[in-house]
Task: inverse folding
């Protein structure tokens, strides 16, 4: 995708006269690229119309950076398509929520159920898994294996063939056990068929889920729209998770699923393992889709708001890729001060969606302050280390005591650090632009 789009933009940049015709040619080229990336036809069409409305021919003719203007317009349009404007139902720790997973067979439901449970468990939740897939032989074994590995309670049966009965029993049992996140894994079929949708409808009616998550394999292509729509018609889908996004996935299907269900994407599956699971973040996703790299939005912002003379030092730190607890502390400070650099960091993948979700700023600030208090009880050696093994049990106990927090609070903060360090490691080797050389980006 990136190749064809940048080629189209380049051609237009090279044109001496930009008129309606040149712009149209460029947009047609981009349209073809987006279709190839599995963005649904109607969406591409809509985008084309919007871009023509936004992009002003006079601006393009007046020697502004044409490539940048159009690229920005496409970027914004795609972001708008993924941003439904309303967050999905968010479960609350300590309060029971029932979450039902739906999707075709092989889309990654069972794997994603466990990832979702594991993700929350690490943050101190009490999740539980219910296997309501009685259609596929071996379904219960698979869930059981996953759940056992992650030490998550599970419920299912080898004998019972009625999925509704199992689901209801499982949900009841875990409600009694005060689990706060009861996850119901359902069966799929290889194809969309009436029996599947009827089963989903009955399951939803019986278990009354607070949230239905539609799980979609990123490689299903143009079929994404009708598939998401079909599920949404039988059960009201509230959120989407796209799986297998780590490979050469085209990703356009995510836009279709959002359009068909009017629900946001909340997580991405990025591998077969339990922890290959990321909170979905619109801007980095679109950057990747357009081949602009995860960091391009961030780099743009940095140029906008950080004074030129401060950039080398900041960028140097980023490019070394050694993400210490001290750097995390400093970034937290920036965020709390919310000066210009704070805003920049809120754009970083990982910092924005997960640490500071929209509409929960107060909670996020309290969390960041809590993390900082714990880091205040760390030694310089600990703050400057890039070796997580250093943080053994006795150190964690000492930090908890020193800051008047629980051991699990310190663990949570360290988990957060590991998550950010993993994201930041991708920044290593970043080319640092010389003063005044913005075109390099
Ligand atoms: P279900 O039929 O919808 O329950 O799908 P499963 O959870 O059984 O997954 C089907 C296959 O996809 C399994 O081999 C999983 O390991 C694999 N899988 C699921 N999510 C991902 C992912 O994010 N990346 C990759 N590479 N494989 C995945
Ligand atoms: Mg399954």
Result:
């Amino acid at each position: 995708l990136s190749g064809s789009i940048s080629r189209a933009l380049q051609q237009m940049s090279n044109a001496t006269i930009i008129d309606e015709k040149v712009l149209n040619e460029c947009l047609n080229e981009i349209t073809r690229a987006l279709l190839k990336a599995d963005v649904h036809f109607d969406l591409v069409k809509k985008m084309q119309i919007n871009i023509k409305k936004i992009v002003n021919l006079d601006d393009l003719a007046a020697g502004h950076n044409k490539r940048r203007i159009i690229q920005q317009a496409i970027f914004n349009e795609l972001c708008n398509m993924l941003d439904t404007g309303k967050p999905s139902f968010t479960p609350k720790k300590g309060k029971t929520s029932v979450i039902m997973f739906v999707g075709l067979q092989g889309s990654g439901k069972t794997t994603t159920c466990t990832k979702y449970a594991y993700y929350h468990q690490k943050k101190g939740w009490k999740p539980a898994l219910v296997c309501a897939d009685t259609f596929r032989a071996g379904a219960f074994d698979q869930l059981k294996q996953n759940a056992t590995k992650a030490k998550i309670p599970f419920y299912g049966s080898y004998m019972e063939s009625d999925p509704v009965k199992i689901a209801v029993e499982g949900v009841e049992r875990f409600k009694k056990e005060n689990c706060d996140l009861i996850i119901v894994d359902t069966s799929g079929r290889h194809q969309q068929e009436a029996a599947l949708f009827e089963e989903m409808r009955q399951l939803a009616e019986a278990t009354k889920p607070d949230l239905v998550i539609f799980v979609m394999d990123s490689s299903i292509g143009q079929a994404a729209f009708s598939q998401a729509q079909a599920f949404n018609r039988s059960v009201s889908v509230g959120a989407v998770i796209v799986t297998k996004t780590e490979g050469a996935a085209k990703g356009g299907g995510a836009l279709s699923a959002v359009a068909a269900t009017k629900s946001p994407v909340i997580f991405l599956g990025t591998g077969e393992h339990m922890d290959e699971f990321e909170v979905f973040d619109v801007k980095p996703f679109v950057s990747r889709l357009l081949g602009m790299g995860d960091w391009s939005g961030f780099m743009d912002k940095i140029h906008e708001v950080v004074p030129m003379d401060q950039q080398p030092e900041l960028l140097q730190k980023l490019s070394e890729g050694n993400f210490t607890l001290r750097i995390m502390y400093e970034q937290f400070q920036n965020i709390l001060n919310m000066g210009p650099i704070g805003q920049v960091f809120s754009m970083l993948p990982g910092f924005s969606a997960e640490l500071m979700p929209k509409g929960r700023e107060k909670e996020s600030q309290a969390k960041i302050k809590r993390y900082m208090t714990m880091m205040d009880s760390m030694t310089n050696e600990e703050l400057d280390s890039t070796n997580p093994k250093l943080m053994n049990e006795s150190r964690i106990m000492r930090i908890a005591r020193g800051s008047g927090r629980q051991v699990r609070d310190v663990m949570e903060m360290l988990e957060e650090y590991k998550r950010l360090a993993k994201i930041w490691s991708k920044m290593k080797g970043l080319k640092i632009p010389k003063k005044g050389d913005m075109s390099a980006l």
User: Anything to note?
Assistant: The pocket of magnesium ion (ligand 2) is lined by residues 109-110, 133, 139 (CB under 6 Å). The chain has a mean pLDDT of 83.
